[in-house]
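Translate structure to sequence.
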């Protein structure tokens, strides 16, 4: 008989998505729309229950305008241990509107 574990599975990837999202003034729903996923997916990532695909992680990086190592890091590493610069170009993003806060952009929906 296989025993099912209770509670969320712990991953080797930690994140600071909730703080970065709230610092940007975004709800889970707003960020989810920006990156083309559901609000539940954002919540699952924030709670450490789900590790996003590389594509989704890069969309989060672009949407929040921060380096990937400020959002995600391996357990035991120091968050934001990289250069602190934005190493990723986001060519799929539409031009930023004047009324949008810096770093917050609408992304095309993931098909």
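Result:
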């Amino acid at each position: 008989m296989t025993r099912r574990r209770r509670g969320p599975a712990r991953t080797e990837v930690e994140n600071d998505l909730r703080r970065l999202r709230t610092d940007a003034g975004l709800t889970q729903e707003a960020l989810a729309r920006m990156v083309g996923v559901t609000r539940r997916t954002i919540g699952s990532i924030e709670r450490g229950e789900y590790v996003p695909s590389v594509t989704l992680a890069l969309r989060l990086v672009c949407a929040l305008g921060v380096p990937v190592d400020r959002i995600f890091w391996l357990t035991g590493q120091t968050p934001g241990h990289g250069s602190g610069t934005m190493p990723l170009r986001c060519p799929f993003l539409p031009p930023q509107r004047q009324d949008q806060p810096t770093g917050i952009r609408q992304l095309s929906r993931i098909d």
